[in-house]
Amino acid sequence: MTVETYRNESAYPFCPGCGHGSILDALDEALVSQQIDPAKLVIVSDIGCSGLSDQYFGTSAFHGLHGRSLTYATGIKLARPDLHVVVIMGDGGTGIGGAHLLNAARRNIGLTLLIFNNMNYGMTGGQHSTTTPAGAITSTTPAGNLEHPLDICSTVGVNGAAYVYRGTNFDKDLPERIVEGMPNNTFGKRSLIAAQEELGLASGVLYRREVDEYASAYRAAAERLRGSTPLRVRTLVPESTSPLDRAVNIMVAGSAGGKVRSAARMIAEAAIRSDLYAAQRDDYPITVKTGHSVSQIVLSPRAIDFLGMDRPDVIVVLSEEGRRKASRYLPEMKGPVFVVPEFADLNTSGTVSVFDPRSAPERVGKSELALAMLSGAVVHEGLLDADVLRKAVSAYPAFAEKNLVAIEAGLSMAGVN
């Protein structure tokens, strides 16, 4: 029977424009061209966006710790040499598991390794990785990356890898290159030596260059920055006061992609402008634009030392995913609960207020709902003034117009101004 695809019916979770999906499509095309028995194929992955890949194929799979996928794959291949083993890693995994990368290259075990290199830790906030270019600005190198990037292809090449290909997800011949990289594990000592001669791999001193010692370069960079900060800092100056005399814990529970966290941040910034302390804690799964998104905001007239949550004082429920995350608190809730119409009969001991987006003077979209509901809730409860909310969102000109519309919609739904 001909295998037409090795993919299952699940849709990729990757961000729009990400190349991960097209690489996996190329892998699928390469597998289809070879008609490998799915029962004889194992896809091994670790952590990160690339680590999600194995679950979208109808084959055997092994998902493990960050940087360790090559070790698992090595064990699988040694135990079952009849299997085709494909390893998927990101540049983060190759950095964390660098020694495993070197050993896999020099051992010439029959594995195919696909490295999804986006030159940063994309899933966890854009921190720099081993392949981040020198001088690049990331969340952990705001003054520019001091480290020289790891050349993965050259590294595995000089350490004995039998086939090394560098390309992009845009390459039309990527499926063919993946096919070429799927070995039959027939290399022995003589064939390796012959391959080395054929490829013209020289021996002896291959690289010699003057490189700044990292510790010295780090201290020199720190000295240059002394008295300044490379971070982009916005100073929030109190413009009004709030009557709040106690800490208030607000939970806003919605879905990924609904701008829950950015809405919570706007409320926190408005609180700081009201001479309050504010803290924010977020909870969301590693998948992109799927699942829940929950933010906890603490507003207080005094310094906030603890972000734990025994029970929220205010809950805002935006979606079914959010309702499930808030369900543990709802039965014993004592304070107000703000919901959209579909949760009007919510099972809670709190006081339920229904905000209907259809009653707003302008249409409230999915991405504006969190800010609208939060704005209406905090003004309704007398925690913040509407004007300070307007000033907080106006500090971001690119989004001010939409955010102001959302605030006005929330105030209208709450019956306040």
Summary tags:
about 15% strand; four-stranded parallel β-sheet; alpha/beta; six-stranded mixed β-sheet; 12 strands; 13 helices; Rossmann fold; Pyruvate-ferredoxin Oxidoreductase, domain 3; about 425 residues
Give an overview of the whole structure:
The chain has 417 residues and is an alpha/beta fold. The chain folds into 2 domains: 20-199, Rossmann fold, CATH 3.40.50; 248-414, Pyruvate-ferredoxin Oxidoreductase, domain 3 (3-Layer(aba) Sandwich). It has helices spanning 20-34, 69-79, 91-96, 98-107, 152-158, 174-180, 189-199, 214-224, 260-273, 320-326, 366-380, 386-394, 397-414; strands at residues 41-45, 60-63, 84-90, 111-116, 120-121, 127-128, 248-255, 277-283, 292-300, 314-317, 336-339, 351-354. The strands form 3 sheets. The protein has a 6-stranded mixed β-sheet. Strand 8 and strand 9 form a beta hairpin. It is globular, with a radius of gyration of 27 Å.
Put simply, the count of helices is 13
Quickly count the domains: 2
The biggest sheet, with number of strands, parallel, antiparallel or mixed sense and barrel status, is:
6 strands, mixed
Q: Assign the CATH topology of the largest domain.
A: Rossmann fold
Helix share of residues? 25-40%
H/E topology pattern:
HEEHEHHEEEHHHHEHEEEHEEHHH
Which regions contain 5 or more consecutive residues with pLDDT less than 50? Answer: 184-188
- Work out the radius of gyration: 27 Å
Structural class by secondary-structure content: alpha/beta
Shape: globular
CATH architecture of the largest domain: 3-Layer(aba) Sandwich
Distance between the termini: 67 Å
